[in-house]
Every structure is written in structure tokens, then in C-alpha cells.
Amino acid sequence: MRGEANGGEQRHLHDAEEEEEVEEQRQRTQRAARPSSDPQQQRRSAPAPGAAMRNGGYVGKHRLSAAIARLDQELQSLQAELSELESMEPASTACQEVISSTEGKPDPLLPITSGPENASWERWFQRVRSSRSNKWWASKGSDFS
Amino acid sequence: MASVAELKDNHAKATAEVNSLRERLRKRRQMLLDTDVERYSKAQGRAPVSFNPTDLVCCRTLQGHSGKVYSLDWTPEKNWIVSASQDGRLIVWNALTSQKTHAIKLHCPWVMTCAFAPNGQSVACGGLDSACSIFNLNSQADRDGNLPVSRMLTGHKGYVSSCQYVPDQETHLITSSGDQTCILWDVTTAQRISIFGGEFPSGHTGDVLSLSINSSNTNMFVSGSCDATVRLWDTRIASRAVRTYHGHEGDINSVKFFPDSQRFGTGSDDGTCRLFDMRTGHQLQVYSREPDRNDNELPTVTSIAFSISGRLLFAGYSNGDCYVWDTLLAEVVLNLGTLQNSHEGRISCLGLSSDGSALCTGSWDKNLKIWAFSGHRKIV
Question: What is residue A127's predicted lDDT score, i.e. its pLDDT?
Fold first, then answer.
């Protein structure tokens, strides 16, 4: 289950320091991974903050240096993104594109749609010869079992 | 090397700088969100899609699995579907006739995902064995009637949550994993071509649960994670993510490109679906359910898919609902979970046929269902 082994319900990373704890936890998480009865219970997200600090406070020099290097790279990346935003168009531009892109495309699941209609869209409601049975599906508008 | 005290000091300073920059970035982004798709569409006077109660019907129920269905995938051509289940089997169905063409017993029964190869000749699956197994559907079954594994893609250090073949390349496949990485594989040699994330700083910081490859530019794919972000990757540049998309407040269980290939949708444990602009990173729309007074917990979104035009967003939820959202007006126009012959359990997966004429849903009730439009269609 998500983060429960660490007693926290950390779902969203706001703090860079918390992310550094993830580095600490990652190895522990991978070592601890074990199958359970439902694979969908396997997922893990970022653990509670300060976990490594709570464990006595010792963080190795190498780990610290690596963490600082990662933070520096993150800084560069964030700075690049900030300058990108200076000249970026607002959301309204993309919203118009979304609307335009849905028009003019024939969509068989829509009650009103642009053409051309394709006859094969109706295949789900046509008689199908099956070698095993004489099942067929009634014409459009009927209920199905 | 500097002393531990100096390093800790530098670490604290760098952390503070990163946090401050993130906050500036967040505010700047907020300023650029001058509208969303719903407000923009309403300002143009658009009306929501209107369905009659019997327009979308369940026209097939595919029965055969003896456990929860976890994943499904259509062939690009033909009407075949492969499904993966808790019963430890893959079943290949002819969706038109409801016949099972293959039933593949897996070595590791804890399967989580499956996918069809572009030519429809092979299927791939993965799960708790941390590997992706490839089966050639034309190969000969052994004495027990089981198909042999034709390739095993091993290398992940955690469960395989999702797999997808690269659309125009039979030989390339991408997997996502609980080890926080995605991998691009060469299926013929079973070698890893690239690893996305892992020791690199811009990788996910939680299990990766889903991925979607851009069909217009197959060098690009997005991945959704327990770290509540989506990341965009260029398969030619594994060293860092192209962009990270923030907004969700919980695990991202499903991510799918919008038909125009410039946007993508997401579904999350936070109960919402969202639409993001790939190029700018803008969050263009949030699709939130009305809170139910009787519900203690908001149902989570397990899987999503867009209709072929993008006008409809199908979202499966943990409580068995299957909302049909009008993507533009952000309104629920139908709930397949309350129609006649609907599933009796959680919808775990869904997908559109390649021509968009049918939606297949898979459920914890062990069945798959096919939905199609049976009403009167108006062509404009």
C-alpha cells in the first residue's frame, strides 16, 4: 500500500527536501518489494518526510554530495522552464486548438457527427456467422443480453 | 571533500532555492491559465453532447475469465482483443463473434498489463514477475495446450504495470514499472535500448503506473506515476524528461494521448481526470465528479480513453461507474455503469477499437463488455 510502511500518506511532493528522502527510501523500497495477493496493492509513492533524519540523523557525505548535485540540476531545469514561461502563450490558445481538433472528425460514438459515415460502424449490430453457434445480434435499437 | 556540516549547509541552501523557484514557477503558470476548455467552450455557446438513454448499448459480454480483469488491448486492425486477468491467463477474443481464439496460461499468474503487437501476431504481458513476456500467437502449443513464451524482457527491478508496442515498430515496446522507470525494449533481441528515470534526476519519484505513446510522433511518450506527476519523454534522449506535469493530488493510474496528439488526458486516485497541453505544460481542464453525500470516499479513476474525435472522454471508476464526459463542456453526459447490462464491479480498464466504433470495458466482475452506438445518428 502507498507509503503505509512508513506511517505516512505522502502523496504529493511539494518540498525538495522531502524528495531527497525519496532517494533514501528508494533502495529500501526496492529491497522490501514482495508479492502480495493482489498486484494492484504493490504501488508505492513517496514516503513521509524526514524519514532518514528521524533515523538518527546520519546522512553520508557521498549521499549529500549526490543530493546537492541533483538539486543543482533541478535548479537549472527550473530556471530554463521559468524563462520558457516568459514567452509562452496562455492556456486559451491551446483551448481553441482542443475545440478545433474535435471538429470535422467522423466519430461513430457521437449522436451528431461529421461524415462520411462508415458502414462498418454497424458491424456490431449485424448478423455474424459463427462456426460454433447461430448467435446473432438483433438490429439496432434492441436490447442485448 | 567538504565536511558534513558544510555539505548539509549547502544542501539546505540548494533546497531552499529549489523550493523558491518552484513557487515562482507555479505562480507564473497560474497567470498563464487565463481560461480552461469548459469556460472557453461555453463562451462560444457550445451545447453538450446529448445522448438518448438507448444510444450506447452493451452489445457483447465476453465471459471466460475466472478472475478480475486487469487489462485489455485491441488489435490495430481486425476486431481482436487481448485481456489479462487475476486468473493468471491472457485470453484473445474475436470481439465480433465473442469467440476466444487463444487462452494463454502464464508462468507468473500475477499479471497486470497486456498489449497487442501492431501486426496482431504477438501479445505482450507483464506483472509481479518484473518481466514482460511475449507470446507469438502463431506458435505451436505444447502438450498441455500452452503457448510457449517467445521472448522474456527482463531487467526491471519492480513490477511491470503497463506495456505498449511502439505503433509503427513491431520490434519496439515500452514498459512502465514499480521501480520508477520506463524502459524501451528491442523485442527481437530482448535487450533494453533505453531506461527513462532511475538514477537520473528528472525521473519519477514513485512507481510508474501507466504510459501512452504519441501516435503522431512515436519518439514521444508520457508516463503517469504514484508521484502524482506525468512526465514526457523523448526516446532519443533518455537522460532527462522533456517536461513534468503537475496538478494531480494522487497516483496517476491512467494516461492517454488526445487524438490530436498535442494533448493528453489523465485519470487519478484523486478522483479527477485532467487534460494537459503537451507542449506548454498547461493544465487545460479538470474533470471532477460531484461529491456524493452518501459516499465516504471519492471513487478513484482507474482508466480512461478518448473517443476517436476526442469529443468524449470515457473514465472508469473504482465504484463501477463508467462516466462519459463531454471533453469540451466538462459535463458527464452518460454513465455506462448505470445502463442495462452494465458491469457489476469496478471498471479496471477500457479501450476503443481502432475505428472508434466500439468501446471495450474490463471489470473486476471478470467480464469484458463491448459498447457501441445503436441509436439514430445524424451526419452533418
Answer: 74
A53 touches chain B (CB under 8 A): no
Within an 8 Å CB–CB cutoff, is residue A48 touching chain B?
A: no
Q: How far is CA B219 from CA A78, A144, B172, B241, in A?
A: 24, 42, 11, 13
Cα separation of B346 and B127, whole Å? 20
CB-side neighbour CA atoms (13 Å) of B64: 23
Give the mean model confidence (pLDDT) for residues B287-292. 89
Question: For A20, which residue in chain B has the nearest alpha carbon?
Answer: B15
| Rg of chain A taking only CA atoms, in angstroms | 27
pLDDT at position B1 over 90: no
Q: Grid cell 458491469 — which residue?
A: B343
| B106 interfacial to chain A (CB closer than 8 Å) | no
Asked if B262 and B279 count as a contact pair (C-beta separation under 8 A), the reply is yes
Residue B237, amino acid: I
pLDDT value of residue A36: 42
Cell of B354: 481502432
Which residues are CB-contacts of A37 (< 8 A; sequence separation ≥ 6)?
A: none
Percentages helix, strand, coil for chain B (3-state, rounded to 5) are 10, 45, 45
A111 → chain B, closest CA residue: B377
Put the strands of the sheet holding B220-225 in their side by side order.
Answer: B208-213, B220-225, B230-234, B243-245
Q: At what angle do helices A16-32 and A61-86 cross, to 10 degrees?
A: 120
Q: What is the DSSP string of A48-102?
A: -TTHHHHTTS---HHHHHHHHHHHHHHHHHHHHHHHHHHT---HHHHHHHHHHHH
CB of A66 within 8 Å of a chain B CB? The answer is no
- Mean residue pLDDT of chain B comes to 95
Classify residue A19 by its DSSP letter.
H
**Residue B368 CA: distances (Å) to CA of A22, B71, B75, B217:** 38, 10, 15, 31
Asked if the model's pLDDT at residue A85 lies above 80, the reply is yes
- Record: contact B355-A16, CB cut-off 8 A: no
Is it true that the peptide bond before A116 is cis, omega within 30 degrees of 0? yes
Least confident segment among A46-60, B181-195, B299-313: A46-60
Residue B190 has pLDDT above 70, yes or no: yes
Interface residue A56 vs chain B (CB under 8 A): no
Q: Give pLDDT, residue B337.
A: 94
Which of these, B59, B62, B111, B103, lies nearest to B85 by C-alpha position? B111
To 10 degrees, the CA torsion angle through A51, A16, B247, B157? -60
pLDDT (tens digit per residue) in B33-65? 999 999 999 999 999 999 998 999 999 999 999
Torsion of CA B223, B31, A71, B243, to 10 degrees: 30
Q: Which residues of B touch A10 (CB under 8 A)?
A: none
CA distance between the termini of chain B: 72
